[in-house]
Write a structure and sequence with these properties.
The chain is mainly β. It is built from four helices and 15 strands.
Length: 247
């Protein structure tokens, strides 16, 4: 850990634009993707677990403006079977969170900080994010070739505040929990019209999407502008040790 990276925390985010597609996937694929056995993919009725594809367009941050794309599985340290309330979106102290498989980012500094301080699976990538009317499009390119594209349809729906969200990571054999404090009013809209295009590529984003078996249409989309957040240091989970399984 380099001192100049640690001094960047807490990182402050203002005026961001975020879109998240929430997918139903098989519990078997979800379990295989989560390498920490202390974490349990949540299970919905109908033998389903949840994966997410999230596009973050950070227009103003203490690290400078940048963009990132996250693909992950929704997990909990407690085994959960039940309706989507297990996402804990309305809880001020959630324990349900995201185990991320890949996190391409457009900023070298944000990549280094995420990897060295949190153990996030960040890689520097060419990311293009556009916001045409009622849509958000995120394209990942590798050597000037498109390898991944997701287009979120930003429809109408109920709105509610999200006060925080959680991610889980592994660094040097230690399981870490990061709770991100947020100021964000989210719209929950239909997944219809949201699409994925995944190239047959060895790029980590394509491998993650294929590993999870993401379906063509998500269950729903969460989206909102004016995203604000405070990112503080991760917290080690007491008693955790490497209990991984081979990928």
């Amino acid at each position: 850990m380099e001192p100049e990276l640690a001094s960047l925390l807490p990182a402050i985010y203002r005026n961001g634009r975020v879109a998240t597609a929430v997918y139903a996937i098989s519990p078997e694929r979800a379990r295989a993707a989560v390498t920490r056995l202390e974490l349990h993919p949540i299970e919905l009725p109908g033998h389903r677990s949840i994966a997410v594809v999230c596009c973050f367009d950070y227009l103003e941050t203490s690290l400078g403006p940048y963009r990132e794309l996250a693909i992950g599985v929704v997990v909990s340290p407690k085994r959960r079977v039940g309706p989507p309330r297990g996402l804990d979106l309305l809880s001020p102290h959630p324990d349900t969170g995201g185990w991320l498989l890949t996190l391409p980012v457009s900023s070298q500094l944000a990549c280094r900080g995420g990897v060295e301080l949190f153990g996030y699976p960040k890689i520097v990538s060419d990311l293009r994010v556009e916001h045409p009317s009622k849509q958000c499009t995120c394209v990942v390119e590798d050597n000037s070739q498109q390898v991944f594209k997701t287009t979120f349809r930003l429809g109408w729906g109920p709105q509610f505040p999200v006060r925080s969200f959680v991610t889980y990571t592994e660094k040097d054999g230690q399981l870490l929990k990061t709770r991100v404090e947020t100021q964000w009013r989210v719209t929950l809209s239909s997944g219809r019209g949201t699409t994925l295009e995944v190239a047959n590529s060895a790029h980590p984003v394509c491998q993650a999407a294929q590993e999870l078996g993401l379906p063509n249409t998500p269950l729903f989309v969460l989206h909102g502008d004016h995203f604000g957040a405070i990112l503080r240091p991760a917290e080690p989970i007491a008693g955790s040790s490497w209990l991984g399984q081979p990928r």
